[in-house]
Amino acid sequence: MVQTSQYEYDWEPFPSPQGRYEAYQRDGVVVARSVFDASEITHIRQVFIKELEQNRQKMSHDDKVPSNDPLAKYPRFVHPHRHPETQAGQLARQNMVNKRILDIVQTLVGPAYGAQSMFYFKPPTARGQALHQDNMSLRAHPETCIAAWIAVDDADGENGGLMVVPGSHKHETICPTPADPTLSFSNSEVKLPPGMKRFQTKLKAGDVLFFHGSLVHGSNPNRSDSRFRRALIFHYVPQSSKEIAFFYLPLIRPDGTEEKIEEAELGGPCGNPWQEEA
């Protein structure tokens, strides 16, 4: 992992759904501007901050050990949509099937199921995440996943906004190597495919970045003094997918009900072959 790239991604306008689809096929990543308005973003931010504060109040005295790692004080939420008893869970579930998101997902990959929800706080000075490919974790097959990364704050190079490697989705899953723990909270990273460059994205709060499950992407540490880089993130898989890692089951249909497909057990990561179907 290196310092923020000198390259910034130059987004093109999309005059039609077909234009967005063609750009996604070519680059593996597209942006949709101002999908959420300011009031919606403020509400999302407030709900997850409140949930974090409530979780802290529930912690025992022994658990409240001071830490120099800002990510320990602002841990990410994983699968909040599975906790409808909380306001954050209800909000995550509601937005996982938000028509504005699903319409774009369907344009890019066809009808899809929701597979994962996450919320990242990424406070000032927090480490980033080394370059990686999402489908190494989800292991969707024979299709791949797609991410919808909702910016809850303005996100750029200074506060650790996402970096992407356009075109890298056309490569097979790349076996990871150890990451620098001083820069990344994850312990592995993938190397850039030959001849490709990482680009720094610049998003405004309310923008949504959609990217392919094999796209190489990651982020540098948040080097700002006062800016958070919060994001609400969803992963989807096409309804034609036949299996996925157990952690992501059950899937969520567009109507909010649950769907189960087979659990992935054989291969996928690091280019290992999938078992051929009989």
Automatic annotation (TrEMBL):
One of its GO terms (molecular function) is dioxygenase activity. Its cofactor is Fe cation. It holds the Pfam family PhyH. Keywords: Dioxygenase, Oxidoreductase. InterPro entries: Phytyl_CoA_dOase-like. Belongs to the PhyH family. This is Phytanoyl-CoA dioxygenase family protein. It comes from Naematelia encephala.
